[in-house]
Amino acid sequence: MADQSIAIGFSRKALDVDVVVTEWLSALLRWLHVIAAMAWIGSSFYFIHLDLSLRTRAGQPEGVKGEAWQVHGGGFYQMIKFLVAPARMPDELTWFKWEAYTTWLSGFALLVVVYYFNAELFLVDKSVLDLTAPQAAAIAFVSLAVAWLAYEALCRSPLGQHEIALSLIGYVFLVGVTYAFTHVFSGRGAFTQIGALIGTIMVANVFVVIIPYQKKTIACLIAGTPPDPKWGAAGKQRSVHNNYLTLPVVFLMLSNHYPLFFATRFNWLIVAIVLLIGPVIRHFFNSRHAGKGSPWWTWVVAAAGIVAIAWLSAAGPSGNKSSTLPETPKFAVVQEIVISRCSMCHASEPVWAGFTSPPKGVRLDDPAQIRLHAGLIDIYAVRSHAMPPGNITEITIKERQMLAAWITARAPRE
Ligand code: HEC
């Protein structure tokens, strides 16, 4: 045993370089992604607030929609919104677009490094659908493009003119895609995919509609010809979509830390509820910033949605049909299950290719560590099927129930 682990330690040295490089690449991309997303969401929330808080005042020059006074960082700002180009175009005009583009570029790179390169761990679950890693990555990638095209077609169709019908169809479309993803990928993969899909739509709104139309409008204003009002309307429509999609997307991006959401029976329904709660909360702030009062009912709806999510997430994973637990197993049996299904990765010297240290520092390779982590084992492998990732080591339902019985009996040592 000792000889074997030394041998593995040595033979792995050559591999360690790319394991470490991947780890760092993932860390740097994540850092960039989170910062770019903060800058993007920050500036878009800022401008929504600014736009809604503009007030008209007597004596404003023609072509001014309104103005707002703000105080920040020790000074006062007078913000004036012009709907037409000012008499003289300013020499410098600040555009807001790289926040969005950087968020997508870094996010997509991260998706490739974490999910598409490690598809067998994070994207595929053979008990959901028997896919190879390249198949899963290809489906995931193509679905982003197809869903975006479908959204674009919907917005440009006659339906695009009817706000309510469009949002209803858009909602059903996103829930439908989520349902499909949870039947193709692992729960975790499905959640990240739907998050990436919504994020892609949002960035494409900036890249394909909002910015190009703004450029055309400016060109017209400079040339002194009237811009097509359709451009402004389309840009506005896409900004509103982005506004309402922001909170759900952030939830989805964070959800991979919470197996009770993504790896339980009603995971797709949880997403359906989040897609409602996010817009409802945004509505509260939008009304307030527009000076139209505070619709407190939105918080009641949001709270009800959150209670529903918590309740659904406690329903356990799909597949656990029987609710009666087996008799409390002996610790030796539990240890045997954990060693054969978990410890190849969760050991101080993991033998699973691609790991140089136990994932997330969770060691499950000796009795004390297994007992110490009983609570986490409960969340990740009993109440949800997040671990083993994609059930790659093929733990059985019966084994999960043995773990459940042991944890219910307060993880006895014997
Ligand atoms: C193929 C390797 C592999 C196997 C087998 C495996 N895990 Fe994991 N485990 C991982 C990886 C990778 C992560 C980190 C996931 C991430 O990046 O979010 C992880 C994370 C965890 C965490 C999360 C810790 C935290 O706080 O974030 C727990 C708990 C866990 N595993 C328990 C288990 C249990 C219990 C088993 C066996 C039933 C198991 N794992 C089997 C690879 C594995």
How does this structure look, described?
The protein is mostly helical and 414 residues long. The chain has two domains: 255 residues, no CATH class; 90 residues, no CATH class. The protein is built from 14 helices and two strands, in the order αββααααααααααααα. A two-stranded antiparallel sheet has the order 1-2. α1 runs antiparallel to α2, α5 packs antiparallel against α9 and α13 packs antiparallel against α14. Heme C binds next to α13.
Brief characterization of the structure:
It is built from 14 helices and two strands; from the N terminus they run αββααααααααααααα. With 414 residues, it is mainly alpha-helical.
